[in-house]
Write a structure and sequence with these properties.
Length: 416
């Protein structure tokens, strides 16, 4: 055991924090890793360009082109990320064999058998997302809220198909599956009728949720958004819509921290949602000026989000996932950086003496609270991180980058 860890352990013990227990808990806490960072949200089922008001920018070489390449890249990234992960798939990542094809409304569990095999071999769970974008049946930027019944029904069928696939994932892996619904639907310019699309979205969700499923195995989440690129004036699935729907239907809210007005923070919303929901879900990202989906860094908001989860003892009530897609840098590094940063933020949050700080607030000792909050920023959490990484067999510092460089040279650079 290294002496720096021994020192840190003693230092945190003075605050009443058991670093051994923290390391153990942190290792087992799953972070759901978004598969779509590996190929710029392209998927394998459609030749359509990325649509839905989301955008990847950059053309860094070496993106995954096949399921095999994507799986190999995920493996490489995971070998450099300490702690438990889950795999977060989109329906567009269906794997068809022998020239077979099924459209989104006809997807079946068998189209994801390869992913199940992959997850089982690694003993990880799978989360899932219906893909309501990059497809010819997205008509006039609308899916579940479309006035065209044929279009709306197609997407309802897609939602139902995905629900069955989610249950299949949970049954096969033995780990509950989070199925997240996000639709891009909206208008670039001021709509005449804000009501009708939302009414249709509500009806479509009701139809999807009408099929029976095991609520202890599949958690359906609904993700809101404030705007998309080319959909600036109106988004059908707004925050108010999503929260109201979730509460009336008894499903789970999902907040993506790129989906609010720039000065609005998700960290301040977590406690409110925890008060009214058994579980909540997060997409952790970094929005820069617009919902840009930059790589998550170890910044104040990421740390504050983690703090809100740990401080309210809600580590087992929050489904934590990452969601960003940077095509301008090495994609493996993008995964590793962002997920390590989420993990680091969680570690810091778990190394914080929340009970003591809360007592200072309750006693109105606010000067001391501020002093403590600032002093805690210089506590030796990096030494606990190093110990945690060592136990996971992962490089704690920048050494991981060598492995990314080697992989780029040996594998990614040959993808031309
Ligand atoms: C889009 C949402 C959504 C997507 C993924 C690909 O604004 O954040 O979660 O990023 O489903
Ligand atoms: Zn998201």
């Amino acid at each position: 055991m290294n002496t720096r860890y021994e020192y840190a352990k003693a230092k945190y013990a003075e605050l009443g924090i058991d670093t051994e227990a923290v390391i153990e808990k942190l290792s087992a806490l799953p972070i759901s890793m978004h598969c779509w960072q590996g190929d710029d949200v392209t998927g394998f089922d459609s030749k359509q360009a990325l649509s839905g008001g989301i955008q990847t920018t950059g053309n860094y070489p070496g993106k995954a082109r096949t399921p095999e390449e994507l799986m190999a890249d995920i493996d490489k990234a995971c070998s450099l990320i300490p702690g438990k992960t889950k795999l977060n798939l989109h329906a567009s990542y269906a794997i068809f064999e022998d020239g077979e094809f099924a459209d989104r409304d006809a997807l079946e569990p068998k189209h994801f058998a390869k992913w199940v095999e992959y997850a089982k071999a690694r003993n990880i769970g799978i989360d899932f997302n219906p893909t309501f974008f990059s497809h010819a049946m997205v008509k006039d930027n609308l899916t579940l809220s479309s006035p065209d019944e044929e279009v709306r029904k197609f997407w309802v069928e897609h939602g139902k198909a995905c629900l069955k696939i989610s249950e299949y994932f949970a049954n096969e892996t033995g780990i509950p599956c989070v199925m997240n619904i996000w639709i891009p639907d909206g208008y670039k310019d001021i709509p005449a009728d804000r009501f009708a699309p939302r009414a249709r979205f509500k009806k479509s969700l009701d139809e999807i949720l009408s099929i029976p499923y095991d609520k202890s195995k599949v958690y359906i989440t609904l993700e809101s958004k404030v705007f998309g690129i080319g959909l600036e004036s109106y988004t059908v699935g707004s925050a108010e819509f999503a929260l109201s729907y979730v509460n009336s239907a008894g499903i789970t809210p999902l907040m993506d921290n790129g989906h609010y007005h720039p000065t609005e923070v998700v960290s301040d919303k977590i406690s409110s949602l925890l008060l009214f929901n058994e579980k909540i879900a997060l997409h952790i990202t970094r929005g820069v000026r617009w919902d840009s989906d930059h790589v998550v860094i170890f910044d104040d908001e990421t740390k504050e989000i983690a703090k809100e989860i740990a401080a309210h003892d809600a580590l087992d009530r929050v489904f934590i996932a990452t969601d960003y897609f940077d095509a301008s840098i090495n994609r493996i590094a993008a995964w590793v950086l962002g997920i390590r940063n989420v993990r680091k933020a969680l570690l810091c949050a778990m190394l914080t003496p929340h009970a003591q700080l809360k007592a200072l607030q309750e006693n109105n000792e606010l000067t001391k609270l501020l002093a403590m909050q600032e002093e805690l920023k210089f506590y030796p959490f990096a030494d606990v991180w190093a110990e945690f990484c060592a136990r996971c067999g992962v490089d704690a510092g920048e050494g991981w980058f060598n492995a990314v460089e080697d992989y780029e040279k040996e594998v990614l650079s040959k993808r031309v």
